[in-house]
Amino acid sequence: MLQPHVGDSLDVLDTPAMLIDLTLMEANISKLMGCFRGSTVHVRPHLKTVKSAALARLLLAAGAVGGCVAKVSEAEVLVQDGIDDLLITTEIVGKPKLERLVRLVQQSSHIKVVVDSVAGAQALNQAMHAAQQHIDVLLDLNVGQNRCGVLPGDEALRLAHALRDLPHLHLRGLQGYEGHLQHIHNPEERAQRCRSAMHLLTETARQLKEAGFAIEIVTTGGTGTAEICASCEGITEVQPGSFVFMDVDYRNAIGPIYANALTILSTVISRPTPTRAVVDAGLKSLSTDSGMPEPKGLPGVTYQPGGDEHGILRWDARAGLLNIGDRLELIPSHIDTTINLHDVYYAHREGKLEAIWPVSTRGKVQ
Ligand SMILES: Cc1ncc(COP(=O)(O)O)c(C=O)c1O
Asked: Measuring CA to CA, which residue among 255, 242, 248, 323 is closest to residue 287?
């Protein structure tokens, strides 16, 4: 296959292909980073969205203090690529993962991980002890998402006290991610519920400090709440990820604050009727867990998956709107799960390829 090169027009790309509109993405990054310039609250973007060392470097250059990852395997790739100040935001449990984490800590002393149980912390301490290593840990607090996380207040205090007996773990702070609030459509309700969740987090941080624990990091927030979190006293860090590209689901929830900068370029391969066309992008190119992708610049045209490899477009009024061979961009409904389906990003400015970046942590789910 002919390889596309920087400088080529998008016409040379085979489809489906994942595109970044650089102008829009750069505006998203500078908008979010601009909100925190001069503030004491740092930005540690969640790299589970972009899954790319190249994009992590762009975010660091824009002022990020480091990155978050969800998985040890993501951290392994990024550390190899020189991005080593990483917070792993998921509890690490089980011998294989702990062994990988030990190797990671041997490569970077800036790896941090969350814990939410005595059993988990003991196993982590034992693994670090066996390798004569230490690791910075944050208590993962349940501020209402009811996923992982120890309860705020006394339970968190009990866990912090238990960590005192585990000398290979250094308690540095708290994480309290309010993922259940990110997509609340009503901005007042989102802000009000976010402030209540932040109160649980900052109040627990205060209690821990009062009990003598050195709590330096209090980290939280996503694209839908980062600014609200940062306005709450005691928060030191926010971890948004989706703002870089956005998606249909997020835009419908929080409005067009950030632009939809990522699309999947596809080709019409069949047009069985004047109001129905089929593109070469199905479930293996576009996720649908958060609704349907949206054809860009084609109001009134709807997309639905037609199986693994096909997407079906329908429209009513404008018969013959799309023809065989036409190319169109589809805006994903959920970028995290869509990006993980692709090998590379084709980054362009006004249709001219400016960079080709591997999705370097693609498939890194362990
Ligand atoms: C722990 C944690 N922090 C931050 C984020 C980033 O959120 P968003 O993509 O909504 O900006 C996520 C996303 O799932 C997350 O799980």
From this structure: 248
Residue 172 pLDDT exceeds 90 = yes
What are the backbone dihedrals phi and psi of residue 182, each rounded to the nearest 5 degrees, phi first? Answer: -60, -40
> How many Å lie between the centroid of ligand 1 and the Cα of residue 4?
33
Among protein residues, the one whose CA lies closest to atom 7 of ligand 1: 222
The CATH label, of 3.20.20.10, 3.40.930.10, 3.90.25.10, 3.40.630.30, for the domain at 23-243 is 3.20.20.10
What's the burial of 320, exposed, middle or buried (CB within 10 Å: 0-12/13-18/19+)?
exposed
Confidence (pLDDT) at 331: 98
Tell me the longest C-alpha to C-alpha distance in the chain: 71
Q: 215 CA distance to ligand 1 centroid (A)? A: 22
What residues are in contact with ligand 1 under a 6 Å CB criterion? Answer: 46, 49, 68, 89, 177, 179, 182, 222-224, 239-242
User: How confident is the prediction for the chain on average, in pLDDT?
Assistant: 97
Each domain of the chain, given as residue ranges in start order, spans 10-16+257-358, 23-243
261 alpha carbon – ligand 1 mean position (Å) = 18
CA of 242 to the centre of ligand 1 (A): 8
Averaged pLDDT, 52-73: 98
